Amino acid sequence: MAIEDIGLVGINVRMWRHLAVLYPTPGSSWRKFAFVLPVTAMNLMQFVYLLRMWGDLPAFILNMFFFSAIFNALMRTWLVIIKRGQFEEFLDQLATLFHSILDSTDEWGRGILRRAEREARNLAILNLSASFLDIVGALVSPLFREERAHPFGVALPGVSMTSSPVYEVIYLAQLPTPLLLSMMYMPFVSLFAGLAIFGKAMLQILVHRLGQIGGAEQSEEERLQRLASCIAYHTQVMRYVWELNKLVANIVAVEAIIFGSIICSLLFCLNIITSPTQVISIVMYILTMLYVLFTYYNRANEICLENNRVAEAVYNVPWYEAGTRFRKTLLIFLMQTQHPMEIRVGNVYPMTLAMFQSLLNASYSYFTMLRGVTGK
User: Fold this and answer.
1) Transmembrane residues, as ranges (predicted)?
2) pLDDT tens for each residue of 331-344
3) pLDDT higher for 115 or 159?
4) How far apart are CA 371 and CA 374, in angstroms?
5) Alpha carbons 260 and 248: distance in angstroms, whole number
6) What is the pLDDT of residues 170-203, one digit of tens each?
7) How many whole angstroms separate alpha carbon 113 and alpha carbon 333?
8) Could you write out the three-class secondary structure of the chain?
9) What's the distance, CA 243 to chain centroid?
10) How far apart are CA 101 and CA 110, in angstroms?
11) Separation of alpha carbons 359 and 297, rounded Å
12) For residue range 253-294, what is the model confidence (pLDDT) as tens digits?
C-alpha cells in the first residue's frame, strides 16, 4: 500500500506529490516552482501595496491579514520543500507503523485505525472545501464595491493598478487563487491533524492491549511477554510523537505569533469600520483563524489526554496477581509513562487547549490595550 492510499494523510500527500512538493521526480521537479513562485511574487506585490495603504488604517489591517495569510501559506510550503527528506522519512515511519497494526491479528486495533482514517479523510475534505469557499468569497467581494479593487491588494512601483487594462489583467491573474491557495494553505493543517489522529489512535490501541494483561488463564511468562510488547510499542509511539514535534515545533510557534497578531488586529478593525460587507468579511476571517488554531491545539491536546489514559491503564494492570519480576517491570514502565508525550510550541509550551485559551486571552488583552491607547 502506497502512502497516498493511507487515509490519514492520503489526500494531502497526493496533492503534494502531484505538485512535486514531496516525492519529486526529475521530470516533475519544475512543478513546485511553477506552484510556489507566482504566489511568492503576488505576496511581494502585496507588501508593496501595504506600504501605499499606510495612512488608511482599516484598509491596511485588512490587507495585512491577506498578506500574512498568504505569507503563512508560503512559509508552510517552503518548509515542506526544504525539509522534504525529513517529511518523507517521517511518512515512511508512519506507513511502517500503520501496516504493523493493519497486518496484526488485533481486530480491535484495526477498527480504531479505520475510524482514524475516516476522521482524518473527512477533516481534509472539510478543510479544503471551506478554504476554497472562503477564498472564493474574497475573490468576488470587490464586485460589490463602488471603487475598483482587487481581491488581494497588490501594487508595483510606478504602475496604476486600477487603470485599464492593468486592472483587468491582475484580476484575471488572481482568479486561480482559490485553488492555488487552498492547495497551499490547508494540506499542512490537515496533515498535522492526520498525524496527530494517528498518534492518538496508537495510544488508544496501547490502552486496549494493557487492559488485556491479567486473568487467571494467563501464565506468568505470557503476562511478561504482553507487558514487554506494550513497552516496546509505547517506545515506538514516543519516538513517533518526538519526531512529529521536531518537524512542526518551530512552524507552529511562528504561526501562534502570526495568528495572535492577526486576531488582535482584526478585532481592532471591527471597531473602526462601518461597511456591513467588511464587517461580515472580518468576522469570517477571525473565525477562519480560530478554526485553524483550534484544529492544531485540539488535535495535539488529544495526544496528551490519551497519554494520561495510558498511565492509568498501566496503573490498573493487576500487578498483585503476578510475580516479582513482572511487578518490577511494570513499575519501571509506570515511571516511563509519567513523562509527558506532547507537541510543543517552539519546543517550549505544550500544545494544549489551555495554551489555546492563553493565546486567545493574550490576543484580546492586546486588542483592549490598543483600543484604549487609540481611543477607538
Assistant:
1) 33-51, 57-75, 123-144, 179-199, 247-273, 279-297
2) 999 999 888 888 99
3) 115
4) 5
5) 18
6) 888 888 888 888 888 889 999 999 999 999 999 9
7) 25
8) CCHHHCCCCHHHHHHHHHCCCCCCCCCCCHHHHHHHHHHHHHHHHHHHHHHHCCCCHHHHHHHHHHHHHHHHHHHHHHHHHHCHHHHHHHHHHHHHHHHHHHCCCCHHHHHHHHHHHHHHHHHHHHHHHHHHHHHHHHHHHHHHCCCCCCCCCCCCCCCCCCCCCHHHHHHHHCCCHHHHHHHHHHHHHHHHHHHHHHHHHHHHHHHHHHHCCCCCCCCHHHHHHHHHHHHHHHHHHHHHHHHHHHHHHHHHHHHHHHHHHHHHHHHHHHCCCCCHHHHHHHHHHHHHHHHHHHHHHHHHHHHHHHHHHHHHHHHCCCHHHCCHHHHHHHHHHHHHHCCCCCCEECCCEECCHHHHHHHHHHHHHHHHHHHHHHCC
9) 15
10) 6
11) 11
12) 888 888 888 888 888 887 777 777 777 778 888 888 888 889
Q: What is the Cα 373 distance to its own chain's centre?
A: 34
Which residue reads 511502517 in cell numbers?
Answer: 96
pLDDT-based confidence at residue 56 (cuts at 50, 70, 90): confident
**Residue 302: all three cell numbers together:** 488529544
Could you give the C-alpha distances from 248 to 192, 242, 255, 268, in angstroms and in order?
8, 10, 10, 30
Query: Which among 150, 153, 156, 145 has a CA at the least distance from the CA of 168?
Result: 150
Q: Judge whether residue 54 has pLDDT over 80.
A: no
Contacts of 355 (CB under 8 A, 6+ apart): 297, 345, 349
User: What grid cell was written down for 65?
Assistant: 491579514
Q: What is the pTM of this model?
A: 0.91
Residue 220 to residue 322: CA distance in whole angstroms: 7
